Amino acid sequence: MRTQVGIIGAGPAGLLLSRLLALQGIDSVVLENRSRAYVEARIRAGILEQHTVDTLTEAGVGDRLRREGLEHHGIYLQYPGTRHKLDFPALCGRTVWVYGQTEVTKDLITTQLAGGPPLLFEVSDVIPEDVDTDSPRIRFTDADGNAQVLECDAIAGTDGFHGVSRPVVQQAGGRVWERTYPYAWLGILADVAPSTDELIYAWHPDGFALHSMRSPSVSRLYLQVSPGEQIEDWSDDRIWDNLATRFALDGWELCTGTVTDKSVLPMRSFVSAPMRRGRLFLAGDAAHIVPPTGAKGLNLAVADVTLLAAALVRLLREQRSDLVDSYSDRALARVWRCTHFSWFMTSMLHTSGDAFDAELQLSQLRRVCSSEAAARELAENYTGLPLDV
Ligand code: FAD
Ligand code: PHB
Q1: Whether residue 262 lies in the annotated active site
Q2: Using alpha carbons only, what angle is made at residue 285 by residues 169 and 107, rounded to the nearest 5 degrees?
Q3: Average confidence score pLDDT of the chain
């Protein structure tokens, strides 16, 4: 088999990259080690930045998003006694959209399978080789158990945090930075209308809570818990009681409903540099992880592949390497901005049990809720800084 760009991983990063390249006349093949059903069912992110929505729309995969997605004009920041709305259009002229990552993935897969580049599920033993040459290849075993070789001009490692691509880049030298936060999120999906018009990010002495949503009839809620927490110890009643306590506000009530999914998520920051070795380019979670408090993971993956697609088109169509040569530095500049913002939101909102920390957090929250300059800084980062392709 031969293609121009071999793409490892059919998460949002790999699928969107394949689509962006196809629109510019560049061939690709996407290799995914899981099944289509598994990839489409994985519940993850829910907030799309303005640039993500624009990129998906321009790529022709934004129709259902525009129809079924919910445009949001702000968030609430809460601490005991106060729920304050940050009005994003007034602060920075941008909005965000609620549309699940599962739906983004389904839209991309549907488009790809309807005449787009090949997308192979359930492959195994994926190995990128000869990435320091101009003709790298990917060895893999297809779903029928046959050994295959995919010859390429370039390889995109969009295989997430546990993929095979990052170790190949790091073998040639590089650096990682990592922070594991001392808390986790317990997340639920529930069949109940959201009790709020905008997302609520709540600081509470018992721990952080987030009220998000997926549709007018489905809510997504999170509780800060300790990292070792067992999901079996959290009955639905215990979860709703904790949520009601942490979101409590005079005159407001939390509606409860049937819990359809629950899981515990670790909280980690991780950055791997460079995001390139020769003709192997990393994008998305393969190169970096942020804690979900800033809602940045999926958006960063989209930003990476937007830069990478333009760089690969320039390389493969015009034989000019300037954009691939600067790809890693340009992508990492945004990665570090988002890593800082995600750390800032996480640090401001999660309780550590330390009374001094709690006073600093409350002071910071009061500042964001009373100073237009402080609120604008948060709004600009949350809605996504413009992408300089
Ligand atoms: P992924 O979505 O991880 O896709 C990588 C793909 O590569 C997967 O399909 C995987 O099966 C495949 N793959 C892996 N190894 C191989 C291999 N060897 N060969 C072939 N294929 C391979 N972000 C937020 O902003 N908000 C959230 O609430 C949020 N919640 C999250 C919850 C969880 C449990 C996780 C893990 C992440 C969450 N994120 C969240 C982060 C966000 O989902 C990711 O940033 C986003 O999925 C990154 O997309 P990606 O395409 O880079 O990686
Ligand atoms: C979600 O809806 O899953 C979500 C929203 C905002 C976040 C994190 C997760 O910051």
Answers
A1: no
A2: 125
A3: 97
